[in-house]
Design a protein that fits this description.
The chain is mainly alpha-helical. It is built from 21 helices and two strands.
Length: 452
């Protein structure tokens, strides 16, 4: 039974708007906000998935499971109390993340200047010759899997093709090309195949991240290589187009696969109109899913204390060899109920829900503080070290996955960066081997950008 009604949410909406504007202004004026800054994806997620969703509910959008409950499907709709609770915690996370990010910026020591002992800092440089041959090798290994995944060739390698490894290897061609663009720039012979791969991803009708993350990464590489604070106009236009069609990307791909050209055109038109008008029906219900997860976690009662993160250690073992191996979303399966079957429907708990499942309220305080501080500190280090530095490379390649962090939780950022883009992991592992590459002194003229 609801004791809070949509009109009662107006106060929360007002508070959220004030906090969002104040935090954005502080981060822009004092925190060095830029496209590559972790707070940019954080603010975008908060506005689009929390603020816009709350506004949509206030003006009449149905909450999660409300339609199914009305149609008699036995679902338990998310109540306005749950929405209010979720929004309050998201705003707390907004304030804490902003504050810790500003602290990280104000306390950052410019590493291009000598340290307290008078000596200069060293950094681990990447061996480009190793990268060149490693990426060529992984591209050639991945291409047969890419073609096999799309029915263009037969490939039977036992466990490799029957397990998830085939899907991971199929991602290698595009990820190796993106790494090559990072080091050697936007050459036509690199951009052309990337464009072809992304066209296939856009029209496959599933896994939208396979298109979105590479596009964000390309933009980030461009911004970093050109020492810009924000992308140029063509990239902004591309971003607006992607934003307009994103909610319909799966339907567009499926219509294309069925050969329904007119349906593709109609979906693109509808998406464009709704994006321009900010139609409430397009608001993602991630806020509802977070509120739902909080309630389900309370009912289930178990606190995971980070144990679900250990599933990353067993992920490399194919499930065909270990059918009962732990799932990386085991906690979602545990809290699901017949009235709220969030696991079977592919629902999420969001980054704050991840914190709550593992550490309850203290986690929802600690997570935004730690993420705001250390992600900002990493961004600052990346900006002050040269492009060839290992940790700069890792930050630029990881930044696009932050949107997955806010959506799914910490494990998702590691999963999408180091597993789906395994060539990045290969570069990291080899360059952490002692003596593989000599460390270099950081000279002052190597300082790349000063806007952070």
């Amino acid at each position: 039974m609801n004791f809070i009604y949509p009109e009662d949410l107006h106060f929360l909406m007002t508070i959220d708007v004030i906090l969002f504007l104040v935090c954005s202004a502080l981060l822009y004026g004092y925190g060095g906000l830029s496209f590559s800054h972790p707070a940019t994806s954080f603010l975008f997620y908060h506005f689009y998935c929390n603020s816009f969703r709350l506004f949509s509910i206030i003006i009449g959008a149905e909450t999660m499971y409300e339609l199914e409950a009305r149609l008699g499907y036995g679902r338990e709709p998310v109540s306005y109390q749950e929405i209010a609770r979720a929004m309050i915690w998201m705003d707390i996370g907004l304030v804490l993340f902003t504050a810790s990010s500003l602290v990280a910026k104000s306390t950052f020591h410019n590493r291009t200047s000598p340290n307290s002992n008078g000596s200069q800092y060293q950094y681990r440089a990447i061996d480009r010759n190793f990268v060149r041959w490693a990426m060529i090798t992984m591209f050639l290994i991945g291409m047969p899997f890419f073609l096999a995944a799309r029915g263009q060739m037969e490939l039977d390698l036992g466990v490799l093709t029957e397990s998830g490894y085939g899907t991971l290897f199929a991602m290698w061609p595009v990820s190796t090309l993106l790494i090559a663009i990072y080091f050697w720039g936007f050459r036509w012979y690199l951009l052309l195949p990337v464009g072809l791969f992304l066209s296939v991803f856009a029209l496959q009708g599933y896994h939208r991240f396979m298109l979105v993350l590479p596009l964000i990464l390309l933009t980030n590489i461009y911004v970093f290589r050109s020492s810009r604070r924000w992308p140029s106009t063509p990239f902004l236009i591309l971003g607006l187009v992607l934003f307009a069609i994103f909610p319909y990307l799966k339907e567009v791909g499926r219509a294309y696969q069925r050969g329904e050209t007119e349906a593709v055109v109609d979906l693109l038109k509808v998406g464009s109109r709704q994006a321009v008008s900010m139609d409430p029906s397009t608001s993602p219900d991630f806020l509802d899913q977070f509120g739902c997860a909080l309630t389900l976690a309370d009912r289930h009662g178990k606190v995971y204390w980070g144990s679900n993160y250990l599933a990353l250690l067993t992920y490399p073992v194919p499930r065909i060899l270990w059918p009962e191996k732990p799932s990386i979303v085991q906690q979602v399966e545990d809290i699901s109920t017949p009235q709220r079957p969030i696991k079977g429907e592919g629902r999420i708990v969001t980054w704050m829900g991840d914190a709550y499942l593992n550490f309850r309220e203290p986690g929802m305080v600690i997570f935004p503080i730690l993420l705001g501080f250390f992600l900002t500190r990493w961004a600052l280090i990346a900006q002050h070290f040269p492009q060839g530095a290992l940790w700069t490379f890792l930050y630029v390649m990881t930044m696009p996955s932050l949107i997955q962090l806010w959506r799914d939780g910490i494990i998702s950022m590691l999963f999408f960066t180091l597993i789906h883009y395994m060539p990045i992991l290969v570069v990291l592992v080899f360059h952490l081997i002692p003596g593989f590459v000599p460390k270099q002194l950081l000279d002052e003229e190597l300082n790349q950008q000063s806007y952070l």
